Amino acid sequence: MIASENAAAIHVAIAGAGPSGFYAAEALLRSGLPVRVDMIERLPTPFGLVRSGVAPDHPKLKEAIRVYDRIARTPGFSFFGNVRVGRDVSVAELQLTHHAVVFACGAEVDRRLEIPGENLPGSHAATEFVGWFNGHPDYRERTFDLSREVVAIVGQGNVAADVCRILAKPVHELRTTDIAEHAFEALAQSKVREIHIIGRRGPVQAKFTTKELRELGEMAGCTTCLDAAELALNPQSEAELTERSNVNGPGNLALFRVFASRKVGDGQRTVRFRFHLSPIALIGNGHVEKMILTRNHLEGPPFRQVARPTQQQIELPCGLVFRSIGHRGAPIPDLPFDESCGTVPHTGGRVLEGSSAVPGLYVTGWLKRGSTGIIGTNRADSVETVQNLLADLSKIYDRDKQGGEALRQLLEARAVRFLNYQNWQTIDAAEIERGKQNEKPREKFTTVQEMFAVSEQIEQSRRSR
Amino acid sequence: MAHVVTDNCHLCRFTDCVSVCPVECFHADEERTYIDPDVCIDCGACIPACPVHAIYEIIDMPDDQRHWVAVNAERSHEWPVVYAKQDPLPTAEARRAQLGF
Questions:
Q1: Which of A279, A369, B18, B30 has its CA 20 to 30 A from that of A306?
Q2: Are A452 and A419 in contact (CB under 8 A)?
Q3: Domain spanning A112-325: CATH 3.40.50.2000
């Protein structure tokens, strides 16, 4: 690109290289306008939760990466890996170098139970476990005491399902996935034999998609079961089932009824669904030994039923607890943030300061709408944000800006080490290569140092050739 | 396995499915959409997006809709990808009412 073309371009920075960031990039690069997209990611590697959230036994979902790779190869796209907005470059600086900044940083902070004992060893966020088995650099050093026999997972959504499958599946089924080697080795020694999946409301309100719930009933060497008495429904829940917009409720209930009829086999792992229960304390001497739960009843009209505690309490002996009750965004310095819901306040993706939109700042994905929806939900979400961004062009495209070139200079002046998309392709090829010896689709590098080392090594050998 | 667009899309073509598809596996002719089974990653995002419940994962599909598996595979390869939501067909609202959605 020649200098004058670069100066005349519309420069957009996108913070975050997960699905919502890539779909925003796609919508911008397809606009037919002279847009340059600079995607800034705090990790050296792109693809966000498709790389580090989607479970290793769901390889097909990871094929979404092919689409992101195609977007990244589009002329006008640049990648800045290992750069954190708010630390390495400020929001104000990006506003000087770019006409618009789209925040697509996701929701990486787990929601806490806020109960006594939550910080005991043995009590973890599902996020940590998922990051650990997926080789996320932030979580590779975590340890989980898999010598415990009984596990409680709090929450009944698809993340809880992922955690359950990885704990319950025969480990040999994971051997040829892209699971991190350290996780595979630890899981091979696992003594886990009983997993409780706990929901504060009833079977009709469970958040699993039917597809994910079905998988939980099809694991080899594992009986998925529940107490049939738990399936008694109140009239409001019956009403929820008859609503045609209720996509997962009826299918989920049908599966729960099948699970309720199952008998636990000898020597098998068991997965047991528990409903109408909320943890109120974790108890143990130096490590989680049991969970105290209160039994709930439901109050409110269909689809707005809430769990209210009763006087009845039960104990669940367990040695390992994973909370999986949602995520919050992490605040970004100098960007408005709504503490109550853990998202950035917005209207149609335009960031709001008080009640007025901040020119040139946008948000998309989980940071915009909270941790709901699946990969594709982000495509429609990012299209909405980009449509509004493009509608604002007359306001935000006020003067020539230098975009990625200026960002590069700023990072170099600060000695921030960053990787471009070509460097990622080098790392990608190296991961695939080292996966081959173990018949894995890839063996991920799990430290930032390794990623830089590999990228530099191969660059050097290229240059010396 | 894959997901399949069945009967109900006919005369509707709302294309809400297209806007949530993470991999652009939807193709369309003048009457309806089709899923390319070689591209679909089985995420299921399109199922709740369809206002007339036309999309099924093969495992959940009613028997009288099974012929659509082959039709989707064949027609998706003949017709272009739809990237973005389009206006529904003029007959869409009448058809939706007739289907009871």
A1: A369
A2: yes
A3: no
| Number of C-beta neighbours around residue A87 at 10 A | 11
A35-41/A77-81 β-pairing: parallel
Put simply, whether B51 touches A (Cβ < 8 Å) is no
SS3 A177: coil
CA distance linking residue A368 with residue A33, whole number of Å: 25
Interface ipTM above 0.85? yes
- Report the SS3 class of residue B59: helix
Considering only the beta carbons, identify the residue of A67, A211, A383 that sits closest to B22. Answer: A67
Chain centre distance of CA A90: 24
Pick the residue of A61, A65, A162 with the most B CBs within 10 A to test the interface with B by mutation.
Answer: A61
User: How many CA atoms within 13 Å lie on the side-chain side of B40?
Assistant: 28
The pLDDT tens digits of the residues spanning A387-416 come to 999 999 999 998 899 999 999 999 999 999
CB A153 within 8 A of CB A322: yes
- Judge whether A288 and A282 are in contact, CB under 8 Å: yes
Which of B24, B57, B101 faces A211 most closely, judged by CB atoms? Answer: B57
A3-108+328-418, CATH topology level: Rossmann fold (3.40.50)
The SS3 call for residue B42 is coil
The residue of chain A nearest to residue B15, with distances taken between CA atoms, is A380
- Whether pTM > 0.90 for this model: the answer is yes
* Distance in angstroms (rounded) separating the CA atoms of residues A390 and A393: 5
| Three-class DSSP category at A431 | helix
Q: Measure the CA–CA gap between A273 and A266, rounded to whole angstroms.
A: 19
CA dihedral A275, A281, A284, A287 (to 10 degrees): 80
What confidence tier does A5 reach under pLDDT thresholds 50, 70, 90?
A: low
Tokens of B83: 């990237």
Q: Return d(Cα A362, Cα A375) in angstroms, integer.
A: 20
Find the helix or strand (DSSP H, E) in which B68 lies: helix B67-78
Q: Please answer yes or no on whether A376 and B22 come within 8 Å at the CB atom.
A: yes
Using DSSP's 3-state secondary structure scheme, residue A59 falls into coil
Q: Is the dihedral of CA B80, B85, B86, B90 positive or negative?
A: positive
CA–CA separation, B47 and B55 (whole Å): 5
If you search the block for the tokens 């409903």, which residue do you land on? Answer: A275
Q: Identify which of B22, B47, B60 has the shortest CB distance to residue A64.
A: B22
Q: How many CB atoms lie within 10 A of CB A73?
A: 10
Structural domains of chain B, ranges and CATH numbers in brackets:
3-82 (3.30.70.20)
pLDDT attached to residue A461: 76
The answer to whether A195 and A217 have CB atoms below 8 angstroms apart is: no
What percent of chain A lies above the pLDDT cut of 70? 98
Per-window interface: A 63-102 vs B, CB < 8 A: 63-64, 66-67
CA of A26: which chain B residue's CA is closest?
B83
Q: Tens digits of per-residue pLDDT, A130-150? A: 999 999 999 999 999 999 999
Q: Domain coordinates of chain A in residue numbers?
A: 3-108+328-418, 112-325
Task: Say whether B43 and A30 touch across the interface (CB within 8 A).
Answer: no
- Give the helix ranges, DSSP H, for A79-122: 91-97
Tell me, what's the pLDDT at A2?
A: 46
